[in-house]
Write a structure and sequence with these properties.
Largest sheet of chain B: 6 strands, mixed
Largest sheet of chain A: 7 strands, mixed
Number of helices of chain B: 0
Strand content of chain A: over 45%
Number of helices of chain A: 0
Number of strands of chain A: 11
Number of strands of chain B: 11
Helix content of chain A: under 10%
Distance between the termini of chain B: 36 Å
Oligomer: heterodimer
Largest interface: A-B, 25 and 22 residues
Order of helices and strands of chain A: EEEEEEEEEEE
Shape of chain A: globular
Shape of chain B: globular
């Protein structure tokens, strides 16, 4: 049981380049989400999904796209990277239903945009 | 203003001390989470609770729904407890995080 798998762990981009952060979970969780973590800011929600085919914006969605074509995968796309997107990114998942479930996080992806 | 407030922001204590980290929130919740993040490391879930008290080893989490307040206690603290502790609440379809409490336990 791998839990939440997030790749890559490290990435350096030049301004204007695009990339995709991958997130996959094998726990059949309905809820998946992406956060960025910046010093002094805590974790901020970028996008989230409550099930396949359903996505919604979080607190800081600008510059990021997501899709949820399967229950397992929730990739985060940066279409044109900017230095302000330098951050550590975390993917998380949990079960839903009548009561929310425990949160499971990926190991994080450290992105530097030059 | 962050809707989930943690205190203190930083805490340094001697090994063996009893540690309390507090979390206050402004809106009713369905669940509250306590998470742990070691330096340079990932984030792991310690507790999820919606009422009462939970205990796991030396860690105890409590929540008071009426006062919109939760506490995380660490008994007999150890240097390996040094980490950032994060409080988070479920609200509708979102999870709102506090900014974390950085704990440093001195040997």
């Amino acid at each position: 049981n791998a839990g939440v798998t997030q790749t890559p762990k490290f990435q350096v981009l030049k301004t204007g380049q695009s990339m995709t952060l991958q997130c996959a979970q094998d726990m059949n969780h309905e809820y998946m989400s992406w956060y960025r973590q910046d010093p002094g800011m805590g974790l901020r929600l970028i996008h989230y999904s409550v099930g396949a085919g359903i996505t919604d914006q979080g607190e800081v969605p600008n510059g990021y796209n997501v899709s949820r074509s399967t229950t397992e995968d929730f990739p985060l796309r940066l279409l044109s990277a900017a230095p302000s997107q330098t951050s550590v990114y975390f993917c998380a998942s949990s079960s839903r239903g009548l009561a929310p479930g425990e949160l499971f996080f990926g190991e994080g992806s450290r992105l530097t945009v030059l | 203003k962050n809707e989930v407030e943690q205190s203190p922001q930083n805490l340094t204590a001697q090994e063996g001390e009893f540690i309390t980290i507090n979390c206050s929130y402004s809106v009713g919740i369905s669940a509250l989470h306590w998470l742990q993040q070691h330096p340079g490391g990932g984030i792991v879930s310690l507790f999820m609770l919606s009422s009462g008290k939970k205990k796991h080893g030396r860690l105890i989490a409590t929540i008071n729904i009426q006062e919109k307040h939760s506490s995380l206690h660490i008994t007999a603290s150890h240097p390996r407890d040094s980490a950032v502790y994060i409080c988070a609440q479920n609200r509708d379809d979102k999870i709102i995080f506090g900014k974390g409490t950085r704990l440093h336990i001195l040997p």
